[in-house]
C-alpha cells in the first residue's frame, strides 16, 4: 500500500498543483505573517510603565508621599517638585508613583477574584448544560444588573471604605464577564469535532476541560483579564474619588483627583496629573486587550 | 471613460487556444491578460477568455486555484488590498471594466452582468423579506417603476424560478426557506434584469444532491431560454460536464487547459487535467482495483466518446477489489449463526425543540423513526442520505455519544441504550470515528503526537509514554505521513494530510469498527482519491468493519459492499451496493440515483442529447 | 413573540426578587443596630426600644424583609431610620433628575457613536477612520467624572461660559436648566459615545464582510448605498446589546458625575445615604437602580424581536 499513497507527499512527476494542495503553505504563511500589532506593543509598553512606576515606589520616591510639608504647599512644577505639590505640601509626583501601586494591586486582586470564580463557573456551565448552565447564567444575569461600582458602593456602606472592600467588590462585580466569556468559548469548543473525537475515545469531562477547552479559551480569557483590569482601574479611581476606596493618607489617584476639586479654579494641574495617570493606565490595559484579541483569534480554530 | 486607452488596446487578442472563436466578431465578454494579486501573492496570472453571447463556459479549479478571484475581479468586487490588471470588455459597454469607476460598474452589475454565490443563506440579507430583495435589483436599474409593479415583477421572477407559491415566498424571510429555495431566490435576483452574462460561483456546492440537480437544471434552462452567457465556476467536473460547452481548467492562478467540454474530458492534454479527471472518475480504477490518483493518472484512460455513448460496461470498468470481503468476511462464513458486529433494532431518536407557545407541547423532531439493520464483521457498510436524513444522529448513537429514545443498538457486544459512561468504554475502544471536517476535528492547540495518542488515554488503557510514541510513529507510517509530523501542529498540514492524522487517531487503539463520517466531502478532488484509497487499504490491512456515512453516492458505491439509504429518519432501502444502484426499488432511491452525477453519466447524457451535432463536429 | 415577552417578564420578576434578597442580606450583614446608629451611643434604653419598635427592627429579619419587599411593587420603601423622611418621596424626586441626565446622555452618546462609528468602519484604512478609532480609544480611557472635572476646568472655570455645577428643574427655569445640564451630559456622553463608537465600528466592520453585502454590491448598489440599505439594520443588533449593557454602566456612572456637578439625583441620594449609614435608603435606591437596569434589558430584548425576524418565532 505504500506506493500510490506515498505519492501525495512525493509526486512522481513534478507539476504545478500536484503537491498535497496549496493550502499548507498559505496557512503557515498567514500564521507567520500575523505579526505582533502596534496596538499590542504600545499597550504592553504603557502597562510596563505603570508596573515600573509601582515597583520604583517600593524603593524610591522623591519625597515621602504621605508626609506633609505645609511650607511647600500648592507649588507649581519645578525641578524640586516635578509635578508640584498639593495643599498639604505633599509631592504630587511621589503620590502618582505610589498611587500606581494601589491601582495595580486593586486591579490584580479584583481581576484575580473574578478570574478564579468566573472562569470555572463559565466552563462548567458550558460543559454541563442543563440546570447547571441555566443556574449559572441566571446568576450571572443578576450580578450583571449590579455593576462593579454599585457593588463597591454597597460594600462601602456596609463594611466601610477600605482598599480591601473595593478590591473584593470590584472582583465580585466582574465575575459575570468572565463567566460569560468562558461559557461562550466553552460552548464553541464543545461543539467541535475534536471534542466529539475525545468523547468517542472515552475521555472524561475533566480531561476534556484540561486538554481541549482550557487551551482553546485561554486567549479569550486573557483578553478578558486585560479589559477587566482597565475597568477595575476606572472603578477604583471612581471609588476613591467618592471617598469609598483607599482611605487617607495613602495616596491613590482617585482621591488625589477628589482633593484637587476645590482648587480647580486656581491649581488645575492638581487634577490633571492624577487624571492623566488614570487615563494612561486604562488606555494601556485597553490597548493591551485589543492587541491580544487580534493575536488570539476569537474564531477558535485560527482558520478562515 | 478613458477613451485613449480604449484605442490602444482594442485589437482583437483572440485566444490562441480557443478553437471555437468563430463567432468572435462581437464577443460578449473579452478578458485579456487578467492578473490578480494581493500585496504579497499573485492569485491569478494572465487569464484570457473570450465568450460569445449565450455561451456556457466552465471554469474548473480546486481550492486556491484562483477561480473565485477571477470571477470577483470580473465583477469588480475584489476585496480590499487585492488588485487586478488587464482588460475586461463587455459587449455594449465602453472601455475596460477593470479601470471603470465604481459608479460605472454599479450600472453594469446587476444589470448586464450578475452573479450567484455559493452559500445562499449568507448571501441573502437575513432581515429583509425575499420579495423586496428581488425587487430591489429591478428598481435600482430602473427596469421597473412604482412599488406595486416592482412587487408584482418580483413575484413573477420568483415564479419563473419555480418557487412554490411565489406570492407567499415573497413575504418570507431567507431563514424560512430551504437551501435550494434560497438559491432559487438568488437566481431570480440574478436574472431579474435579463443580464447578458451570469456568473455562478459554485452555486450548488452547498446543496443536497437532489436539490443540486434541480437547481442546475433550472440554471441551465434559464440561461438557454434567455440566451444568457454563463460563466460557471466550480471544482466539480461532472457539474461542468452537465452544464457547459467549453471549459477552462485553472491551477494555481493559471489556466492550464482550455477547450470544448467533450474534448477536455475525453482527451485531456495537460497532465493536471488528466490527474484531476483520473482522481474524480470514481467509475474507473487501476489494475489493483484502487482509484486513480493524480500520481497514477498516467495510466488513466479517460472516458471515450463511444464508450460514453454506449451503456456503461460496469464489469470491465470496475475491476474486482484485490481482497473481496463478500458480504461478511469473517472466517465464520455466511452470516447464519454469527452475531453481527453492529445490530440496530427499531431505533428511535426524537429531540425536543423550543416551545412556540408557553402552554403548547414542545415541538418534537424525529431524527430517527425506528430503523433496523445489521452489519456483519468485515463488511463495508454504506449509509447514504441527504441532510436531515438522520445519518449523523445514527452515527452518534453508534459511538455511544447519544442515547436512543427507544430501541436497541448493539455494537461489538455492547448495548448502547441505557448504558452508563463506564459501560461504553469498551464499545468506544472497538469503534472509532473519522470525522468530516479535517480542520475542526483536530484540536489546533495540540501537537499531532498528542492528537493521535489521545485514544490511548482512555480508561483501562495503560500505555506508557515511550510506547505511545512508538505507536504514534507506527500509525504515522501507516497513513503515509513523515515521522516528524508528530511534533507539528494541525495547521501545518493540508486538508488531506489532516484527514490522515484523523485516521491515524481512529486506528491507534486497534478498533474493530471504523465509522467514517463524510471523510472526503471537505477535500479537494485530487486528494479525495488518495484518502479513499488509504482508507480502503487500511480497512483490509487491519481487517476492519467499515461504516461509511456519506451523501455522495459515487463515493459510497466505490467503497462499500452493502448500503442503506436513509431519508427523513427512515431506511427506505437496503441491500448490496450494485443492486441498489443498478435497480433502485424505492422512489426516493431512484430520485437520489437519478440526481447524482458522475463524470461519465453526464458526458453520456450530453452526448446523447446533442448526438447529431456532436458527430458532425468530429 | 408573546411567549418570549412573557418569559422575559417572568425572568425579570424572578431576577428582581433574587436581587432584593441579596441586597437585603448584604445590608443587614452590618454589625450594629440601626436604631443605635441613628440615635447615637448616648441614647437611653427606652428611647432605643421605642425607636426599634418604630422602625420595626425588633422584629425577625424575615419579617423585616417581607415588610420591605411587599412595599416595593407599590413604591413604598418605608421611612428612613436616619432622616425620618419617607424614602419613597425622596426617590420620586430624585429619580426624575437621574433619568433626565441618563437618557439625555445616552441620546447624545448614540448621536456621536452611530455616525462616527460607521464612518470609522467605512474608512477603516484611511486617516479619518484611524483618527476616529484613536480618539475613541482615548475617550474610553477617561472616566466620566474625570471628563466632568476637565470640562469644569475649561468651560466653567477657564472660559466662564457655563455654570460649574448645580441643578434647576426644567419646569422651573428651562434656560437655567439647559445651561446647567450641558456639562454633565457632555461628560457622560463623551465617554459613553467613545465606548459605543468602538462597538458601532466593529459591528459595521463585521457586517461589511458579510456575504449579503457582497450580494447587494453585485446587484449594482454603491458602497454606501449597500451599507445603508442592507448593513445598518443588521449592525444595529449587536449595537443594541451593547447599548443596554452600557446603560447600566451609564446609570452608575451618573452616580459619580452627579457628585462632581452637585446634582440632586439618585446618585447623590445613594452616596449621602452611604455616608449616613442609612441602610434602608441605600438598599431602596440600589433596588431602584437595579430595577431601571432590568427594565431597560426587558425593553431591549423586546426590540430584538422587532428587529430580527429570526428570533420572532422561537421562545
UniProtKB/TrEMBL annotation, chain A:
Record field: transmembrane: 40-60, 102-127, 139-159, 165-182, 217-243, 263-289
SUPFAM superfamilies reported in the protein's UniProt record: MetI-like (SSF161098)
UniProt-listed InterPro entries: BP-dependent_transpt_permease, MetI-like, MetI-like_sf
Highest taxon listed in the record's lineage: Bacteria
Membrane topology label: Multi-pass membrane protein
GO BP term, pick one: transmembrane transport
PANTHER family associated with the record: OLIGOPEPTIDE TRANSPORT SYSTEM PERMEASE PROTEIN APPC, PEPTIDE ABC TRANSPORTER PERMEASE PROTEIN
Protein name: ABC transporter permease
UniProtKB/TrEMBL annotation, chain C:
Entry keyword Membrane: yes
Similarity remark: Belongs to the binding-protein-dependent transport system permease family.
Gene3D superfamilies with a match to the protein in the record: MetI-like (1.10.3720.10)
Compartment(s): Cell membrane
Classification via CDD domains: TM_PBP2
Signal peptide start-end: none
Transmembrane segments: 12-30, 99-122, 134-161, 181-200, 239-262, 282-307
Gene Ontology terms describing biological process: transmembrane transport
Name listed for the protein in its UniProt record: ABC transporter permease
Membrane disposition: Multi-pass membrane protein
Short name of any one Pfam family annotated for the protein: BPD_transp_1_N
UniProt keywords, alphabetically: Cell membrane, Membrane, Transmembrane, Transmembrane helix, Transport
Taxonomy, superkingdom: Bacteria
Signal keyword on record: no
Annotated GO CC locations: plasma membrane
Domain ABC transmembrane type-1: 95-300
InterPro entries in the record: BPD_transp_1_N, MetI-like, MetI-like_sf
Organism: Arthrobacter terrae
Amino acid at each position: 500500500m505504500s506506493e500510490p499513497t506515498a505519492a501525495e507527499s512525493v509526486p512522481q512527476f513534478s507539476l504545478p498543483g500536484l503537491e498535497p494542495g496549496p493550502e499548507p503553505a498559505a496557512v503557515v504563511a498567514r500564521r507567520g505573517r500575523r505579526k505582533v500589532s502596534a496596538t499590542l506593543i504600545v499597550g504592553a509598553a504603557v502597562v510596563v510603565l505603570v508596573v515600573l512606576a509601582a515597583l520604583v515606589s517600593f524603593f524610591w520616591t522623591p519625597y515621602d508621599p504621605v508626609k506633609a510639608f505645609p511650607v511647600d504647599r500648592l507649588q507649581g512644577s519645578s525641578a524640586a517638585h516635578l509635578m508640584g505639590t498639593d495643599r498639604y505640601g505633599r509631592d504630587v509626583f511621589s503620590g502618582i508613583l505610589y498611587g500606581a501601586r494601589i491601582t495595580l494591586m486593586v486591579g490584580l486582586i479584583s481581576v484575580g477574584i473574578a478570574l478564579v470564580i468566573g472562569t470555572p463557573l463559565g466552563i462548567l456551565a458550558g460543559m454541563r448544560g442543563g440546570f447547571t448552565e441555566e443556574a449559572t447564567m441566571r446568576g450571572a444575569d443578576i450580578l450583571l444588573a449590579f455593576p462593579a461600582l454599585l457593588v463597591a458602593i454597597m460594600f462601602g456602606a456596609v463594611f466601610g471604605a477600605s482598599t480591601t472592600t473595593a478590591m473584593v467588590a470590584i472582583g465580585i462585580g466582574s465575575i459575570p464577564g468572565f463567566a460569560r466569556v468562558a461559557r461562550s468559548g466553552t460552548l464553541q469548543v464543545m461543539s467541535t469535532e475534536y471534542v466529539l473525537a475525545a468523547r468517542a475515545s472515552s475521555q472524561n469531562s475533566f480531561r476534556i476541560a484540561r486538554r481541549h477547552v482550557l487551551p482553546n479559551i485561554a486567549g479569550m480569557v486573557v483578553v478578558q483579564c486585560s479589559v477587566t483590569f482597565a475597568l477595575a482601574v476606572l472603578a477604583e479611581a471612581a471609588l476613591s474619588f467618592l471617598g469609598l476606596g483607599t482611605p487617607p493618607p495613602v495616596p491613590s489617584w482617585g482621591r488625589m483627583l477628589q482633593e484637587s476639586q476645590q482648587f480647580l479654579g486656581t491649581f488645575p494641574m492638581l487634577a490633571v496629573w492624577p487624571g492623566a495617570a488614570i487615563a494612561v493606565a486604562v488606555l494601556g490595559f485597553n490597548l493591551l486587550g485589543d492587541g491580544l484579541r487580534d493575536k488570539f483569534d476569537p474564531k477558535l480554530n485560527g482558520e478562515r | 471613460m478613458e477613451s485613449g486607452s480604449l484605442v490602444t488596446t482594442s485589437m482583437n487578442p483572440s485566444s490562441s487556444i480557443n478553437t471555437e472563436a468563430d463567432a468572435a466578431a462581437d464577443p460578449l465578454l473579452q478578458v485579456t491578460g487578467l492578473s490578480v494579486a494581493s500585496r504579497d501573492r499573485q492569485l491569478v496570472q494572465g487569464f484570457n477568455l473570450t465568450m460569445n453571447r449565450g455561451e456556457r463556459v466552465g471554469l474548473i479549479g480546486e481550492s486556491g486555484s484562483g477561480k473565485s478571484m477571477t470571477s470577483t475581479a470580473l465583477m469588480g468586487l475584489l476585496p480590499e488590498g487585492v488588485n487586478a490588471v488587464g482588460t475586461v470588455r463587455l459587449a455594449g459597454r465602453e472601455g475596460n471594466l477593470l479601470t471603470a469607476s465604481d459608479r460605472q460598474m454599479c450600472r453594469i452589475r446587476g444589470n448586464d452582468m450578475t452573479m450567484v454565490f455559493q452559500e445562499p443563506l449568507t448571501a441573502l440579507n437575513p432581515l429583509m423579506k425575499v420579495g423586496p430583495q428581488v425587487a430591489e435589483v429591478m428598481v435600482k436599474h430602473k427596469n421597473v417603476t412604482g412599488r406595486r409593479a416592482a412587487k408584482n415583477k418580483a413575484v413573477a421572477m420568483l415564479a419563473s424560478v419555480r418557487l412554490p407559491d411565489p406570492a407567499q415566498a415573497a413575504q418570507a424571510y431567507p431563514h424560512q426557506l430551504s437551501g435550494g429555495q434560497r438559491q432559487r431566490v438568488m437566481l431570480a435576483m440574478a436574472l431579474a434584469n435579463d443580464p447578458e452574462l451570469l456568473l455562478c460561483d459554485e452555486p450548488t456546492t452547498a446543496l443536497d444532491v437532489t436539490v443540486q440537480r434541480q437547481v442546475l437544471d433550472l440554471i441551465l434552462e434559464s440561461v438557454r431560454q434567455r440566451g444568457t452567457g454563463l460563466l460557471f465556476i466550480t471544482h466539480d467536473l461532472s457539474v461542468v460536464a452537465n452544464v457547459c460547452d467549453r471549459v477552462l481548467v485553472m491551477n494555481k492562478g493559471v489556466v492550464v487547459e482550455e477547450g470544448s467540454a467533450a474534448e477536455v474530458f475525453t482527451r485531456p492534454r495537460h497532465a493536471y487535467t488528466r490527474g484531476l479527471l483520473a482522481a474524480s472518475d470514481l467509475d474507473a480504477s487501476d489494475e489493483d482495483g484502487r482509484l486513480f490518483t493524480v500520481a497514477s493518472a498516467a495510466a488513466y484512460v479517460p472516458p471515450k466518446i463511444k464508450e460514453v455513448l454506449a451503456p456503461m460496461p460496469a464489469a470491465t470498468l470496475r475491476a474486482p477489489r484485490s481482497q473481496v470481503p463478500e458480504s461478511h468476511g469473517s472466517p465464520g462464513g455466511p452470516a447464519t449463526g454469527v452475531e453481527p458486529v453492529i445490530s440496530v433494532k427499531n431505533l428511535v431518536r426524537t429531540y425536543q425543540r423550543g416551545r412556540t407557545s408557553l402552554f403548547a407541547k414542545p415541538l418534537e423532531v424525529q431524527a430517527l423513526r425506528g430503523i433496523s439493520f445489521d452489519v456483519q464483521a468485515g463488511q463495508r457498510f454504506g449509509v447514504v442520505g441527504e441532510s436531515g436524513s438522520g445519518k449523523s444522529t445514527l452515527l452518534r448513537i453508534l459511538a455511544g455519544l447519544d442515547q436512543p429514545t427507544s430501541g436497541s443498538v448493539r455494537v461489538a457486544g455492547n448495548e448502547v441504550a441505557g448504558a452508563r459512561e463506564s459501560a461504553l468504554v469498551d464499545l468506544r475502544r472497538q469503534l472509532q470515528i473519522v470525522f468530516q471536517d479535517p480542520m475542526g476535528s483536530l484540536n489546533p492547540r495540540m501537537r499531532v503526537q498528542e492528537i493521535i495518542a489521545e485514544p490511548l488515554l482512555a480508561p483501562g488503557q495503560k500505555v506508557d509514554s515511550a510506547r505511545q510514541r512508538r505507536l504514534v510513529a507506527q500509525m504515522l507510517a501507516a497513513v503515509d505521513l513523515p515521522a516528524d509530523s508528530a511534533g507539528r501542529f494541525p495547521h501545518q498540514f493540508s486538508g488531506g494530510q489532516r484527514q490522515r492524522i484523523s485516521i491515524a487517531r481512529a486506528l491507534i487503539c486497534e478498533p474493530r469498527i471504523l465509522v467514517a463520517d463524510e471523510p472526503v466531502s471537505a477535500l479537494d478532488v485530487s486528494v479525495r482519491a488518495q484518502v479513499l484509497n488509504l482508507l480502503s487499504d487500511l480497512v483490509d490491512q487491519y481487517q476492519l468493519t467499515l461504516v461509511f456515512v456519506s451523501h455522495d453516492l459515487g463515493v459510497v458505491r466505490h467503497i462499500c459492499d452493502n448500503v442503506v439509504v436513509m431519508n427523513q429518519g427512515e431506511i427506505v432501502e437496503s441491500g448490496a451496493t450494485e443492486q441498489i444502484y443498478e435497480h433502485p426499488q424505492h422512489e426516493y432511491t431512484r430520485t437520489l440515483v437519478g440526481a447524482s452525477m458522475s463524470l461519465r453519466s453526464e458526458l453520456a447524457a450530453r452526448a446523447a442529447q446533442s448526438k447529431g451535432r456532436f458527430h458532425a463536429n468530429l | 413573540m408573546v411567549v418570549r415577552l412573557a418569559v422575559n417578564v417572568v425572568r425579570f420578576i424572578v431576577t428582581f426578587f433574587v436581587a432584593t434578597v441579596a441586597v437585603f442580606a448584604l445590608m443587614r450583614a452590618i454589625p450594629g443596630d440601626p436604631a443605635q446608629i441613628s440615635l447615637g451611643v448616648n441614647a437611653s434604653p427606652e428611647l432605643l426600644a421605642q425607636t426599634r419598635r418604630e422602625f420595626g427592627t425588633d422584629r425577625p429579619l424575615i419579617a423585616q424583609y417581607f415588610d420591605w419587599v411587599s412595599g416595593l411593587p407599590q413604591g413604598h420603601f418605608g421611612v428612613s431610620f436616619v432622616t425620618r423622611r419617607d424614602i419613597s418621596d425622596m426617590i420620586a424626586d430624585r429619580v426624575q433628575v437621574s433619568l433626565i441626565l441618563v437618557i439625555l446622555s445616552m441620546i447624545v452618546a448614540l448621536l456621536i457613536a452611530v455616525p462616527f462609528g460607521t464612518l470609522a468602519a467605512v474608512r477603516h484604512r484611511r486617516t479619518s477612520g484611524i483618527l476616529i478609532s484613536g480618539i475613541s480609544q482615548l475617550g474610553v480611557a477617561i472616566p466620566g467624572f474625570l471628563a466632568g472635572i476637565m470640562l469644569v476646568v475649561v468651560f466653567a472655570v477657564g472660559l466662564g461660559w457655563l455654570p460649574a455645577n448645580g441643578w434647576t428643574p426644567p419646569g422651573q427655569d428651562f434656560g437655567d436648566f439647559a445651561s446647567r445640564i450641558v456639562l454633565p451630559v457632555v461628560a457622560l456622553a463623551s465617554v459613553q459615545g467613545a465606548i459605543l463608537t468602538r462597538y458601532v465600528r466593529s459591528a459595521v466592520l463585521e457586517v461589511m464582510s458579510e456575504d449579503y453585502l457582497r450580494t447587494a454590491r453585485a446587484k449594482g448598489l454603491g458602497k454606501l448605498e449597500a451599507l445603508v440599505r442592507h448593513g445598518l439594520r443588521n449592525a444595529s443588533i449587536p449595537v443594541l446589546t451593547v447599548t443596554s449593557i452600557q446603560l447600566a454602566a451609564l446609570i452608575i456612572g451618573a452616580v459619580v458625575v452627579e457628585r462632581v456637578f452637585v446634582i440632586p439625583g439618585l446618585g447623590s441620594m445613594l452616596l449621602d445615604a452611604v455616608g449616613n449609614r442609612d441602610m434602608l435608603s441605600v438598599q431602596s435606591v440600589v433596588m431602584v437602580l437595579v430595577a431601571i437596569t432590568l427594565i431597560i434589558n426587558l425593553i431591549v430584548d423586546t426590540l430584538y424581536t422587532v428587529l430580527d425576524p429570526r428570533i420572532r418565532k422561537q421562545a
